[in-house]
Design a protein that fits this description.
The protein is of the alpha+beta class and about 120 residues long. The chain has one domain. It has helices spanning about 10-20, 55, 75-80, 100-120; strands at about 30, 35-40, 40-45, 50. Strands 1-4 form a two-stranded antiparallel ribbon. It is elongated and about 60 Å long. It starts with 8 loop residues before the first helix and ends with a helix. The mean pLDDT is about 95. The chain binds protoporphyrin IX containing FE (HEM).
Length: about 120
């Protein structure tokens, strides 16, 4: 059964697109340890900042027609052409989710079971 999981390509694209539109972790917080700047925005040390995967995942610069459910955004080719960190369902950097692969596997298994059951009716 586990050998089948890598073959569930379209299902995985649907999962990725679902987490784009509704990222379970829709906001991530950080406290700055030193002053920095992002583009023209100056950030002082010791401030709490929020990063919103929800807003990022609906940014038209990276996601045309962001309100539409389009799993094809996650073909290997499309994914390769997007800027790094334009998709953050599991965060990024050293504090990125360590359960990432486990969560993806769980989703594949649960969805497959639900879909098989739906087929029976
Ligand atoms: C759909 C499922 C999941 C999502 C969307 C998710 C998302 C995230 C995100 C965005 C972060 C980073 C938080 C931050 O940067 O402040 C994170 C961290 C973390 N996640 Fe997940 N997660 C999921 C499932 C899991 C599972 C199944 C586990 C464990 C089995 C797990 C364990 C962790 C741990 C331990 C961290 C903290 C890592 C660190 O701070 O070094 N997550 N997760």
């Amino acid at each position: 059964m586990f050998d089948d999981l890598p073959h569930l390509k379209y299902l995985t694209m649907c999962m990725e697109e679902s987490m784009r539109i509704y990222p379970p972790a829709w906001i991530i917080g950080r406290k700055t340890i030193h002053a920095d700047a992002i583009s023209n925005y100056k950030i002082s040390a010791g401030h709490n900042i929020l990063i919103s995967p929800y807003a990022l995942h609906r940014d038209k610069r990276f996601w045309p027609e962001p309100e539409k459910f389009i799993p094809e955004r996650f073909t290997p080719e499309e994914s390769k052409n997007r800027p790094k960190n334009s998709y953050l369902p599991f965060g990024a950097g050293p504090r990125m989710c360590i359960g990432n692969n486990f969560a993806m596997m769980e989703m594949q298994i649960v969805l497959t079971m639900i879909l098989q059951n739906l087929n029976r009716n």
